[in-house]
Amino acid sequence: MNVESGKLKPGQARCPAITTQEIIAKDKVGAPGWVRSESYEFLGDEDIPTDRYTDPAFAELEYERLWTRTWQFACREEHIPEVGDYYVYDIGTYSFIVTRVAENDIRAYFNACLHRGTKLRASGSEGSASEFKCVFHGWSWNIDGSNKGIVCPWDFPHVDRSTLNLPQARVETLGGFVWINMDQDAPTLSEYLGPEALAHFAAWKLEDRYVSSHVVKSYPANWKLSVGAFHEAYHVPRTHPQVCPANGDLNTQYDVYSDHVDRFIAPQGVPSPYHEGRYSEQEVLDQCTMGDSSMVGDDRPIVPEGGTARQVMADMYREMFEAATNTDLSGVSDSEMIDCFSYTIFPNTFLFPGISLPMAYRFLPNPKDHRETQFEIFFLRPVPKDGVRPEPAEPEYLTPEQSFTEAKSMDPGFGKIMDQDTDNLFMQQEGLEASAKPGLTLGNYQEIRIRNFEKTVDRYMTVKP
Questions:
Q1: Terminal-residue alpha carbon distance, the chain
Q2: What are the structural domains, with CATH classification, of the chain?
């Protein structure tokens, strides 16, 4: 595509290398429609004000206007498979007990005693209960939220127990995820996501996955900077040079579906346009099987004459993951096997529905420090063919000083990539605090997801609940 100044409308310019869709079109096992679609829209080119990342007053207003009105991933259904199982989800100063009341009835109670406000369950806890009893004075509630008992009821003649039910947030389930929203007047989850995103969810069948690993780490950067760091592949050549021989970064495809949903597709098994013509097909494959980002062990597969590294990778990953997960992946496209699909569900969830990187990210702000984020990585593997769902992995907590490579449940090569990303965030937060420039300047295409995200932040922040 001609990218000379003045010959294209804003947002039309693209990397002059092969496109993501052209790469996918050559695959042996073809991709479904949700992969082959494109949905880009130019959203402007003005700078993004930096005070949203540095001003504690902005963070305080987010708790009032943004977090109270958006749908958020609270837990997976497998975290609460039986009646009475519960999982505590905290967002800022808010806390919820997410519990299964009946087979098809999940509720989220505000996690506070209605006597003097003590939390009924500790932050980060999960388990099974027949009641929720306050540790302070012993007031208790049934799992359906109704009041079970008041200690010394003779001293509370003014309290009507029949109305003393635990307040609830709204709850919906989709793709095996439990979503909550504090706003009783908010759109439904389906309306919030929109028809295109719902169609993609239906195709992924994430309800047939389970949490095989869960890694948690906090670090000193605003949550919105953290979200933005994973919105684009523009940073890959400089930040992750070890993956460039087998990662189509600058020709990644970006799509915007609504205020609340966008994505990128980063093609794998092809060299970065940044290194066009530098690597042979065998060298590309060697990077995936022998290099720092290897996912397959020490044997050296060979690209056959006339073949491609991408096709060998797809075939190899299909065989490897079928064996590792006891699942049938013969009908899964090559693109779904190896490419990186990254979807944002506003405000703080990323879904990666592919097979080789099946993950969800969640970013949670620290209510005591607007410069700190808790970053959670959930690996979502397919449920085995026998239908027996493994127990979800317990969270593995890293200290701020620890490297992601120290996570026992995470591949060290992937951990190195996470370290590179979060090290950037330390520097970005400090740089914004020191900068004389009052705004972030974004690319029209490669950073469109950041612009879509920040425009949605603005929409919530400028309208009072």
A1: 45
A2: 20-52+210-461 (3.90.380), 72-185 (2.102.10.10)
Number of H helices, E strands in the chain: 13, 20
The single residue listed with the structure tokens 């400089």 is 238
* Number of residues that make up the chain: 465
Q: Judging by DSSP bridges, how do beta strands 369-382 and 396-398 pair with one another?
A: unpaired
Contact 254, 242 (CB under 8 A): no
192: closest CA among 465, 412, 449, 456?
456
Q: How does strand 147-149 pair with strand 140-142? A: antiparallel
Residue 25 CA to its chain's centroid (Å): 27
145 near 168, Cβ under 8 Å?
Answer: yes
Is residue 106 a contact partner of residue 173, using CB atoms and an 8 Å limit? yes
Helical residues (DSSP H) of 265-409, grouped into ranges = 281-290, 309-325, 334-338
Q: Strand order of the sheet with strand 209-219?
A: 253-256, 261-266, 340-345, 349-352, 359-366, 369-382, 209-219, 396-398
Paired tokens of 94: 């808010």
pLDDT block averages, 10 residues each, the chain of length 465: 66 96 97 97 97 97 98 98 98 97 97 98 96 98 98 97 97 98 97 96 95 97 98 96 93 98 97 90 86 56 94 93 85 95 98 92 97 98 89 97 97 95 96 97 98 98 88
Q: ∠ CA 80-209-23 to the nearest 5 degrees?
A: 150
Indicate the helix (H) or strand (E) that contains 64: helix 56-65
DSSP string, 257-299: -SSSEEEEEE-BSS--GGGTTSS-HHHHHHHHHHSTT--S-S-
Beta bridge partners of 397: 216
Can you name the residues that pair with 100 across neighbouring β-strands?
106
- Written as one letter, the residue type at 425 is L
* Cβ–Cβ < 8 Å for 64, 465: yes
**Cβ atoms 223, 364 nearer than 8 A:** yes
